[in-house]
């Protein structure tokens, strides 16, 4: 009898843990990233990369030549902008995987709802504008 109860308990725990680890890919519009902006968290306030999430598109802006002492009124040299369409988002407890057309893939570690970290350790903070 103890063995049967133990087996039932082990099966139940296994099923619960599998259900909790399953992740589902959703359209960007259905994710927590929709209509948000994440900006590279730079302590110096200098040039930074920005991620613009809309309903189904991700736009990434990044300056190419970052000036070490960026001052108000300075302009970024050779800023690049890339746009990705048909974005799908897979959100797990502590990670977010973003995919799109043309084999686009981007991964973040989710520190909090308003703070993400890319695979190189760069942090991005949500801009609430």
Description:
The protein is built from one helix and ten strands, in the order H-E-E-E-E-E-E-E-E-E-E. The chain has a ten-stranded antiparallel sheet, with no helix packed on it. Strand 3 and strand 4 form a beta hairpin. The protein is elongated. The protein has one helix at 2-21; strands at residues 25-27, 36-40, 50-53, 57-62, 80-85, 88-91, 95-100, 104-112, 115-118, 123-127. Helices cover 16% and strands 40% of the residues. The chain is α+β, with helices and mostly antiparallel strands.
Short description:
By secondary structure, the chain is an alpha+beta fold. The chain has one helix at residues 2-21; strands at 25-27, 36-40, 50-53, 57-62, 80-85, 88-91, 95-100, 104-112, 115-118, 123-127.
Main traits of this protein?
129 residues; alpha+beta; ten-stranded antiparallel beta sheet; 40% strand
Rg over CA atoms, rounded to whole Å, is 20 Å
Helical proportion, percent range: 10-25%
What integer is the average pLDDT? 78
Structural class: alpha+beta
Uncertain runs are: none
Strand neighbour order, sheet with most strands: 1-6-7-8-9-10-2-3-4-5
Total number of beta strands: 10
From the spread of the alpha carbons, the general shape counts as: elongated
| Main β-sheet description | 10 strands, antiparallel
Which helices and strands, and how do they pair?
Layout: H1 2-21, E1 25-27, E2 36-40, E3 50-53, E4 57-62, E5 80-85, E6 88-91, E7 95-100, E8 104-112, E9 115-118, E10 123-127
């Amino acid at each position: 009898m103890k063995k049967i109860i133990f087996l039932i308990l082990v099966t139940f725990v296994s099923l619960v843990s599998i259900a909790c680890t399953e992740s589902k890919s959703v359209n960007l519009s259905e994710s927590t990233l929709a209509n948000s902006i994440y900006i590279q968290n730079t302590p110096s306030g200098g040039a930074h990369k920005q991620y613009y999430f809309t309903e189904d598109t991700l736009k990434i802006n990044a300056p190419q030549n970052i000036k070490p002492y960026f001052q108000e009124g300075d302009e970024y040299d050779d800023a690049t902008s890339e746009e990705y369409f048909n974005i799908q988002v897979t959100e797990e407890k502590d990670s977010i995987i973003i995919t799109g057309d043309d084999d686009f893939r981007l991964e973040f570690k989710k520190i909090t709802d308003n703070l993400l970290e890319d695979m190189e350790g760069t942090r991005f903070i949500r801009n609430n504008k």
